[in-house]
């Protein structure tokens, strides 16, 4: 059993602290936001993350997990201190903002009175381990206090973060002190995952390179989707066919509205920024970002090609969160899509199973004209009198809707499936004008008056599923 502190109770910190407690360690989670800590003490989680609440509850009850805003209390006898504060994109729209990591390091230094290993979980620019060391060193209350710094990047997906923590593909540890890295490795031994120990810079780079590669896979398949759409192929089946090749793999080849969330957008930006700053020209990373941006815009292109002007139209939006099983709205495609359609004079009716609150805040912050946005409590209300329905997040509940009822309640039966969760032939059977992402609909006429819409139904033959 080790004594552990985790600084930052966001997605990464709360999951890390809770899972480490569940493995038998004594964990204190620290956050600067008092309200968050007060609510956590009452068992109210600041985030929606499946499975997390019961693990928190179990470990609080077992007295292995506690919450505080007080660094002094948290660091007493602590052997391992994880930094898991946020590292958003900085003011220059590229580099990661290290302000919070530095402030956490300062706070740690001011309270530390014994040897501890400080482990950085936040995604930080290559070389940041040195910055953390420097900040701690400069702020220690006594010069004889020793400490080590280890980088241990997180690979947790929101929505499955608890399972990802408990079943990692690998644990990466970086340090200039192999003994310190070895001590952290022992924390993870019971997970029976490969543990890679390397130097600090390489560990920090592994995180960026992994996220950038996954983002590249997504932009690659989205570019292929564009080509499929024009040439008449179905990208969903193309991805299946590609995925059988073990060298390629099926994961992260879902074409759609592109990537959002708290990591991929900021990490690809930050990696490109680091490369630019180093005098390089990271063309691939820039292309990945450009494709990702354009992908969201294709929804608007599809809407205008089918409806003509969007002025005075009503667009139903199913899903707000950047992906299912989370209420996280950071860099969610829904924000751009809603901003663009409302700017063109449409009003929107929206529904998300868990992200209404966070969605409202995010849309407000993005400067969306909120009078044009109605929040509904069911997908069926969203469809009512709508001129088009757009699937933005592939929540499971959207896969089993009564589509006949939905189609019947709409003003015009246009369905834009931004996540390819339906089959064209099924939707056309219900009378929808269906448009997926990259699913061979190139020959569609450009603007469709309402009365002519039926001419498009059943236009394409059904493709057999692999
Ligand atoms: C994390 C990582 O740390 C980030 O680098 C990674 O790339 C993505 O995941 P995340 O857990 O998603 O960030 O951040 P967030 O949910 O915003 O939580 C950060 C928490 O740290 C917040 O609760 C915030 O209040 C807290 N915090 C921030 C502190 O306790 N101290 C600070 O100085 C700053
Ligand atoms: C990501 C990393 O996967 C994880 O290791 C960690 O570094 C944090 O960042 P997360 O952002 O929670 O996790 O979600 P992820 O499941 O990776 O999806 C990211 C985005 O890519 C989502 O917007 C998702 O909709 C999109 N995506 C994913 C696709 O568009 N197509 C795919 O095939 C897969």
Describe this structure in words.
The protein is α/β, with parallel strands linked by helices and 466 residues long. The chain has 2 domains: 3-198, Rossmann fold; 232-435, 3-Layer(aba) Sandwich (Rossmann fold). The protein is built from 17 helices and 14 strands. The strands form 3 sheets. It has a 6-stranded parallel β-sheet with strand order 3-2-1-4-5-6, with helices on both faces. The longest helix is centred in the middle third of the chain and has 32 residues, at 200-231. The chain is globular, with a radius of gyration of 24 Å.
Offer a quick outline of the entry.
The chain has 466 residues and is α/β, with parallel strands linked by helices.
Structural key phrases:
alpha/beta, Rossmann fold, six-stranded parallel sheet, 17 helices, globular, binds uridine-5'-diphosphate-xylopyranose
CATH architecture of the largest domain: 3-Layer(aba) Sandwich
- As for the number of domains, it is 2
Percent helix: 40-55%
CATH class (first level) name of the largest domain: Alpha Beta
* Average pLDDT, all residues: 93
Discrete helix count: 17
Our Rg estimate from Cα atoms comes to: 24 Å
Beta-strand fraction estimate:
5-15%
Number of strands: 14
Terminal CA distance reads: 49 Å
Task: Please state the overall shape, judged from the principal axes of the Cα atoms.
Answer: globular
Report low-confidence residues grouped into runs of 5 or more. 442-447, 456-466
| Sheet/helix structural class | alpha/beta
CATH topology of the largest domain: Rossmann fold
Largest sheet: 6 strands, parallel
Give the strand line-up of the largest sheet. Answer: 3-2-1-4-5-6
Bound molecules: uridine-5'-diphosphate-xylopyranose
Annotated CATH homologous superfamily of the largest domain: NAD(P)-binding Rossmann-like Domain
